[in-house]
Design a protein that fits this description.
This protein is an alpha+beta fold and about 220 residues long. It has two domains: about 120 residues, Jelly Rolls (Sandwich); about 90 residues, Arc Repressor Mutant, subunit A (Orthogonal Bundle). Helices cover about 50% and strands about 25% of the residues. The strands form two sheets. Strands 1, 2, 3, 4, 5 and 6 form a six-stranded antiparallel β-sheet that branches. A three-stranded antiparallel β-sheet has the order 7-9-8. Helix 3 packs across helix 4 and helix 5 packs across helix 6. The radius of gyration is 20 Å and the shape is elongated.
């Protein structure tokens, strides 16, 4: 079945800002994104925190129909989207009928679990420098694997980065200015950041920690 035929059978168009489902709701459908973007968020520390942005070709919302439990997150359309909306019975038939779909799902879920663990570790960090630098390193290494290039381009805005690390935009800008001054990050005029050596971000954090310890010892 072609992509157009799939859309004719299961497709729907959603405008930016529409909530597909909310955390805690009962779910009977999963989604496959054909175009646009969808933001996945969870309620943490009494605030909505973005934990993922779904790109075309990815699926989400499947766990509610696999384990019959409430939605674990909220999905909001970030930019006008074309989605395939698949109910539990159709999804089960797809898994039974095509082994490659089941294998692909296992691979995606494993990668998603790894990203979720990284996000949790990130949000547990108290220091703003560590949160921002660790997040940029993770994104840069992910982009590098995808492009196989020598440098890493991270297409993210200050606002998006702030949402990922649960900090204010002002706090994120302060950390970014430090990284820009140290020439560890290059600002690409609002389109994102170039990070030639992601590993050096951690070295920079270690330097800041050492500097703070020395300052503390001097004050004692």
């Amino acid at each position: 079945m072609s992509e157009q035929q799939l859309f004719e059978r299961f497709g729907r168009i959603y405008p930016a800002g529409e909530v597909l489902f909310r955390e805690g709701e009962h779910g009977e459908e999963m989604f496959v994104l054909q175009s646009g973007e969808v933001e996945i968020s969870r309620r943490m520390r009494n605030e909505d925190q973005v934990i993922a942005v779904v790109s075309p070709g990815e699926f989400f919302g499947e766990m509610a129909i696999v384990n019959n439990r409430p939605r674990s997150a909220t999905a909001t359309v970030k930019s006008d989207a074309r989605l395939l909306v698949i109910d539990g019975r159709t999804f089960e038939a797809m898994l039974r009928g095509k082994t490659e779909i089941a294998v692909r799902m296992i691979q995606v879920l494993a990668a998603r679990l790894e990203r979720a663990n990284q996000q949790i570790e990130l949000l547990l960090l108290r220091d703003a420098n560590h949160r921002v630098a660790q997040c940029l390193r993770q994104l840069a290494e992910s982009q590098r694997k995808a492009s196989s290039g020598p440098a890493s381009f991270v297409p993210i805005t200050v606002a998006e980065l702030a949402a990922r690390v649960a900090l204010s935009e002002a706090d994120v800008e302060r950390v970014l200015n430090r990284l820009l001054s140290a020439q560890l990050v290059t600002d690409l005029d609002g389109e994102g950041y170039a990070i030639p050596e992601p590993g050096r971000l951690i070295e920079f954090l270690e330097f800041l920690e050492l500097k703070e310890r020395v300052a503390t010892m001097s004050d004692a």
